[in-house]
Amino acid sequence: MGSLKNEKYYDTIYEKSIEYSKPYDKSVYYGLWKKVMSLITKQPILEGGCGPGQFAKMLEDNSFKDYIGFDFSEQAIKMAKKNSNQIFSVMDALLGKWPQYHFNTILLLEILEHTDDLKILSLVPIGKEIILTVPNFDCDSHIRHFTTIDSVISRYGPYMDIIHAENFNSNASTWYIIKGIKREM
Q: Using the 8-state DSSP alphabet, how is residue 1 labeled?
């Protein structure tokens, strides 16, 4: 299991990694993103932990233009602004001072395994659609990972009424995709 990393760690990752400079359709996440995109039914969209904007660009190219993304990495947001015409902001999801933006759907893709996931979910307004992905594998920056879809449902089910849950296999890895509606706690 890895450890909690700060924004400078991610600035370096985004700056040096070839993966995060690729067009979205060349990314290792492309198949996962196609599936997530098919689950989006409501705009406007807010994406927490948007990274360098690859998925934002994919959304833009597929007529999802009512979007704001945020990330605590300044480098990620710098890259995102070059990659896409969507709106981006440097912001830490844990601070709860999310962009003043009316949204219907929040995307939390590949962020919850890196941070205080339950705090972030507690900050989502009641009634909002949540789509999240988490991996089944560990790495240096993952402070948790899941081994079954049931373990994901068990952790996040108290925060939302789950309407979709699935395993997604790609590139010899598994991600878990959950879609739900934020509920009262």
A: -
pTM for this prediction: 0.95
Q: What is the token pair recorded at 125?
A: 């307004």
9 and 152 Cβ atoms separated by less than 8 Å: no
DSSP-based three-state secondary structure for 120:
helix
pLDDT, tens digit (0-9, with 9 covering 90-100), for 37-70 = 999 999 999 999 999 999 999 999 999 999 999 9
Q: What is the pLDDT of residues 80-94, one digit of tens each?
A: 999 999 999 999 998
Name residues whose C-beta falls within 8 Å of residue 86's C-beta, 6 or more positions apart in sequence.
53, 56, 57, 59, 60, 65, 67, 68, 69, 80
d(CA 138, CA 169): 15
Domains delineated in the chain: 7-182 (3.40.50.150)
